[in-house]
Design goal:
Length: 388
């Protein structure tokens, strides 16, 4: 009798061609299902034409789409090739583009075991679909953070700082890539290239728009983000973070600093384990920590943002040089059911609408992994273990 374990050990499930085909199929299916409701893509597409015509990027355009544009003006360059296509084609290729850059970034992670990449791709496939249903740039954010880490690992600091700042000039999230600075072997090159790319990306939109307009647009972008942050606090679909979970379950709306300060202390404590820097597994786990932290402690997080920390959870699981025990496996199952499937139609609607979403419970399983990860980073030896 073939067991479940034996079934999934078949070559089909462990072939990179299978995963490539799946990650190509997911964005196409997501686009086809949402062609009639691709509001986010219409927002992104509109930003390109509004920038070209010198219009305000951050006001409502009810005749074009619902909601507001919230990204930096540099994003208009990224969306440009897709904006000039017919909508049905643009949204399809936009989704493919997002899926493929994350697929590429994951494949570039320098794991010695090829099976690690396969596990990450399978584990994140459902959350990829969730994000692509919304045409979200969060998929690219995950890719850019991973790419910046890979470039630091490969001593390509110029490209590492480019990826960090490209994402930061769009959505700020990737600025957490600066956490990899301490792993850089060329810190002065890292600093200089960071400053140069900062100037280049600041000036880039000025090639197609008036400089004064771009400066005013960037100022308005920051103001819009501040306002949006305030609006996120009490909405069901936003602040799906550890911050939101604590506030919504307790009903206490105290300052986030009471949570953020202890979280930051936990986050930086492993930096003092300088002797572990030489171990690749320690650095990979640090990458996982960054991917989780940036969403768990952001009021702007939502269900479709979880492709970022979910990738981090998968990297955490495969990075350990020791064998994961049954409790770690159970934790991964818990995360998959209550953090990934909880936002899908596979989850009971009543539970989803009355418990999971109102209390941001989606953040809880990933947070548990995050705390376990912090404990491991502070206490475990990440040196490669000898085969028994």
């Amino acid at each position: 009798m073939i067991t479940v374990r034996d079934f999934f050990k078949k070559k089909f499930f462990n072939d990179n061609r299978t995963l490539f085909g799946l990650w190509l199929l997911i964005p196409v299916c997501a686009a086809l299902f949402k062609l009639h409701k691709c509001n986010n893509f219409l927002i992104f597409r509109g930003s390109f034409y509004h920038l070209l015509s010198g219009q305000d990027l951050y006001i409502h355009y009810p005749n074009e789409y619902k909601d507001l544009f919230l990204y930096g003006p540099v994003f208009s360059y990224i969306i440009a090739p897709f904006a000039v296509m017919p909508v049905w084609m643009g949204v399809t290729f936009w989704n493919i583009f997002l899926a493929m850059i994350l697929y590429w970034a994951i494949q570039k992670l320098p794991f010695k075991k090829p099976g690690n990449h396969i596990f990450i791709l399978w584990f994140c496939a459902h959350d990829l679909l969730t994000s692509l249903f919304m045409q979200q740039f969060n998929v690219a954010i995950a890719a850019l953070i991973i790419a910046s880490f890979v470039c630091v690992e490969k001593e390509k600091d110029v490209w590492a700082t480019f990826f960090i700042l490209l994402g930061a000039f769009v959505k700020l999230y990737t600025i957490v890539g600066l956490a990899f600075f301490f792993f850089s072997r060329h810190k002065m090159k890292f600093i200089v290239s960071f400053l140069i790319w900062g100037v280049v990306l600041f000036l880039l939109p000025m090639l197609i728009a008036d400089p004064a307009y771009i400066v005013d647009t960037i100022k308005e972008w920051f103001y819009t983000l501040v306002v949006k942050n305030g609006n996120n606090l009490h909405t069901m679909h936003q602040n799906v973070s550890l911050l939101g979970f604590i506030h919504k379950t307790t009903g206490c709306w105290f300052s986030d600093l009471w949570i953020l300060v202890p979280a930051l202390i936990l986050f930086v404590l492993p930096y003092f384990r300088i002797g572990q820097y030489k171990n690749p597994a320690f650095r990979y786990t640090w990458l996982a920590s960054v991917l989780m932290f940036v969403v768990l402690f952001s009021t702007g997080s939502e269900s479709s943002t979880y492709i970022i920390p979910f990738t981090g959870v998968a990297i955490w699981y495969v990075s350990a040089p020791w064998k994961r025990d049954k409790w770690d496996i159970a934790l991964m199952v818990f995360v998959f059911i209550f953090s990934s499937l909880s936002s899908s139609d596979l989850f009971p609607k009543y539970v989803k609408m009355h418990f999971m979403m109102p209390y941001a419970i989606k953040a809880l399983p990933v947070s548990i992994v995050g705390f376990k990860l912090c404990y491991e980073l502070c206490t475990k030896d990440y040196a490669p273990q000898k085969a028994e």
